Amino acid sequence: MPPLDLVELTRELTRIDSPTGEEGEVCQFLAGTLERLGYRVTRQEVSPGRFNLLAVRDAPIVVFSTHLDTVPPALPVREDDTYLHGRGTADAKGIAAVQVAAAERLAAAGERRIGLLFVVGEEQTGDGARAAETLVPKGRYLVNGEPTDNLLALGTKGIL
Fold this sequence. Notes:
Blueprint: H1 6-15, H2 24-36, E1 40-47, E2 50-56, E3 62-67, E4 78-79, E5 84-85, H3 93-108, E6 114-119, H4 127-132, E7 141-144
Helix pairs in contact: 1-3
């Protein structure tokens, strides 16, 4: 497989409409991408047609995580000289693409103990995060991707 193109992955994820409750297509696309990259992918059904993804190569120490659902309405993907625009580019499909790219760079440098966890339902119900509690293997550290105006957030509301 050719090297991962971060911007193209973001485009592809963003083109797939995935409002809460309808994330199946984007999860299938990302699961296939991760499998082609060499990850073992667990699909955890949250409800019919919707599932979380846990992708690992080796038992993870660090897990990068974010969500794949968006809020309506769907917006077309478009670009200008500086930005990629579309529903989910910032929250959180762009973040998912960056996490995959970061894991790939770490793997290329020999670090394969990075997990990737992508959940459904964050925008409304939190059902994906609740279900993900049972997934294994777990890492020691979790880095949750959520836009914070480029500021480090040490805590957030959510499900513990």
